[in-house]
């Protein structure tokens, strides 16, 4: 099993060199007191906790899994103790409002601490990860009484939260849900129905669990326009806020999964459970998107974590494992064979992992910085620009980074060879754990439709045009750059092609709506490759500036430039393949009759 090491130097590069969060925080009054010393203290503490407390539980938690007996779920050994330490450090409410006991620190700092824990042990991180969405949902849509009752304990981590959407007959199409909400005389509601695939729906790590539940009122319209949102606690609260009687919500079973086995994925039965309406009646889906968008960024992070974890394990193995001689001559003549890192095929897999880990980190931290801007910029136009950028890039990040994380995990197994197929080395667990990331919080295909249909076509291209102008401005400024000029030329051409491609697909969709569905996934991949190309060009330009300034860590920054060159030469050409697939159209997909699929 590889030993996880928090990538602090790269995290510092993204936060300080690339994003200049110190300048950002200084410009936002809410974060004016957040300086480098405070950030370093938090990052170092988080790194030590992830490496020493959370990572050692990753493999043992996977092997033990969760235990279920008569509605009671017990987490693997060590999980509960680690969570208590995590609470004591104050990390659950790091970015939450001080009004409710949070530290009020930036989201772009919070995501860095979250990445470390999640790479060390994704299953463990899920128990508190979903609480962040519950906190944001109640903050945004809850009544003052609901905020007073629930937010304090959620922010400290004394309670955790869940997101209860999926039902046996209703997955991504939430308009099909059947869970009912009947008004009660005291102003509350009685929630009845079954929810499945509920992460952390039941566990032994906290005294109470706050479920955020979608359900229908008796007079609700059919479909997605008739969904309301409710708070349903595991334990009802007394008037003084203490825990009262057990609510009528119970775990019917836990699911036996391919991966994330240490995370309890539950079937939850609501039997006239007491609940409280959040937001307006029949507007629950709009309110729930506060939670879902948070969850999608968290799922996108899993792709980065898989890339980073698989890269760390594969790199360590490739440096030590001896096999054959380099085709260009022995590189370690004193040994009986060369380390496999010298072979181009192995090195290419490692660089691919590195590209997705570091490029994905830059994208997500940049998105988190937009969250900081959206919440705290005083200028309304700046807030709108940040919101538009998040709207466009969230489905790209969720879909593309999780797919690339799955690819990086596969490369991890491949670098290990036969050893990668064996549990003790840890690579096959990353493959199993990360596979779910392309499925939950909206599959890759759903995210692709959201990107192309809602974010591109529905906005009449406005969101893409705004991002395209950012890339165009970067290219105009650096077209003749001595280090990245060639890459900038490629990026500039692809940026224009992205806009042209979106117009083509939109026009084809006007003639035949199925063309949009046929093009969506490949359009998403194209968008992802171009987005990461912009991030890698930006990182290479930043690294070149640091070298020119006379920094001592020349090798670190040169590695950034060389990784960017690999991305542009060996990975970015994939984008054109997706254009060819889009140009293939929908007819070849639907020409076969259903009965012809099998004989």
Brief summary:
The chain is an alpha+beta fold.
Structure description:
By secondary structure, this protein is α+β, with helices and mostly antiparallel strands. The protein has a domain at 460-585. The chain is 57% helix and 11% strand. The chain is built from 19 helices and eleven strands. The protein has helices at residues 8-18, 21-27, 36-54, 58-64, 79-89, 107-120, 122-141, 144-156, 284-320, 344-376, 380-416, 427-435, 444-457, 462-478, 485-511, 514-548, 554-571, 574-583, 587-590, and strands at 67-69, 72-74, 159-164, 180-183, 189-199, 208-215, 228-233, 235-237, 243-246, 249-254, 265-278. Strands 3, 4, 5, 6, 7, 10 and 11 form a seven-stranded mixed sheet that branches. Helix 1 (8-18) packs across helix 10 (344-376) and helix 6 packs antiparallel against helix 7 (122-141). It is globular, with a radius of gyration of 24 Å. It starts with 7 loop residues before the first helix and ends in a 9-residue tail after the last helix. The mean pLDDT is 96.
């Amino acid at each position: 099993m590889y030993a996880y090491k928090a990538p602090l130097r790269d995290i510092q590069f993204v936060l300080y060199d690339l994003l200049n969060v110190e300048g950002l925080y200084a410009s936002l009054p809410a974060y004016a007191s957040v300086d480098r010393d405070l950030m370093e203290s938090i990052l170092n503490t988080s790194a030590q906790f992830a490496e020493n407390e959370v990572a050692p539980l990753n493999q043992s938690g996977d092997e033990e899994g969760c235990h279920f007996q008569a509605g009671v779920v017990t987490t693997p050994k060590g999980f509960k103790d680690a969570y208590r330490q995590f609470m004591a450090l104050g990390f659950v409410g790091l970015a939450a409002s001080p009004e409710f006991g949070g530290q009020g620190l930036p989201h772009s700092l919070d995501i860095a601490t979250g990445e470390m824990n999640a790479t060390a042990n994704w299953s463990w991180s899920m128990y508190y990860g979903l609480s962040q969405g519950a906190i944001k949902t109640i903050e945004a849509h809850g009544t003052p009484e609901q905020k007073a009752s629930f937010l304090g304990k959620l922010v400290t981590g004394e309670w955790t939260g869940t997101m209860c959407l999926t039902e046996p007959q209703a997955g991504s199409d939430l308009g099909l849900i059947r869970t009912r909400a009947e008004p009660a005389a005291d102003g509350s509601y009685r929630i009845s129905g079954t929810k499945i695939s509920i992460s952390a729906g039941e566990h032994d790590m906290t005294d109470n669990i706050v479920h955020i539940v979608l359900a229908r009122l008796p007079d609700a319209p059919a479909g997605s326009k008739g969904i309301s949102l409710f708070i349903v606690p595991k334990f009802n609260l007394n008037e003084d806020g203490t825990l009262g009687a057990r609510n009528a919500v119970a775990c019917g079973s836990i699911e036996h999964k391919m991966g994330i086995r240490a995370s309890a994925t539950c079937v939850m039965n609501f039997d006239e459970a007491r609940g409280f309406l959040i937001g307006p009646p029949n507007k629950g889906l709009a309110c729930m998107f506060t939670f879902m968008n948070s969850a999608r960024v968290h799922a996108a992070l899993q792709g980065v974590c898989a890339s980073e974890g698989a890269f760390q394990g594969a790199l360590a193995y490739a440096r030590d494992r001896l096999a054959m001689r380099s085709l260009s001559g022995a590189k370690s003549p004193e040994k009986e064979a060369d380390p496999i890192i010298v072979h181009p095929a192995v090195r290419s897999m490692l660089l691919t992992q590195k590209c997705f880990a570091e490029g994905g980190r830059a994208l997500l931290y940049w998105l988190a910085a937009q969250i900081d801007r959206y919440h705290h910029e005083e200028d309304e136009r700046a807030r709108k620009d940040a919101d538009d950028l998040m709207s466009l890039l969230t489905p790209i990040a969720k879909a593309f980074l999780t797919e690339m994380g799955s690819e990086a995990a596969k490369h991890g197994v491949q670098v290990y060879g036969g050893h990668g197929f064996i549990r003790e080395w840890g690579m096959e667990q990353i493959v199993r754990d990360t596979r779910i990331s392309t499925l939950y919080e909206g599959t890759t295909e759903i995210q692709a439709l959201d990107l192309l249909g809602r974010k591109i076509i529905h906005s009449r291209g406005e969101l893409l045009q705004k991002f395209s102008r950012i890339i165009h401005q970067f290219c105009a400024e650096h077209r003749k750059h001595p280090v990245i000029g060639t890459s900038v030329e490629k990026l500039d051409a692809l940026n224009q092609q992205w806009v042209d491609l979106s117009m083509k697909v939109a026009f084809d969709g006007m003639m035949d709506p199925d063309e949009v569905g046929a093009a969506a996934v490949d359009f998403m991949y194209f968008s992802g490759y171009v987005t990461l190309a912009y991030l890698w060009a930006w990182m290479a330009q930043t690294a070149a500036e640091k070298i020119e300034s006379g920094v001592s860590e020349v090798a670190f920054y040169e590695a950034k430039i060389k990784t960017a060159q690999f991305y542009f030469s060996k990975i970015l050409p994939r984008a054109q393949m997706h254009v060819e697939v889009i140009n293939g159209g929908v007819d070849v997909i639907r020409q076969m009759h259903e009965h012809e699929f099998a004989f």
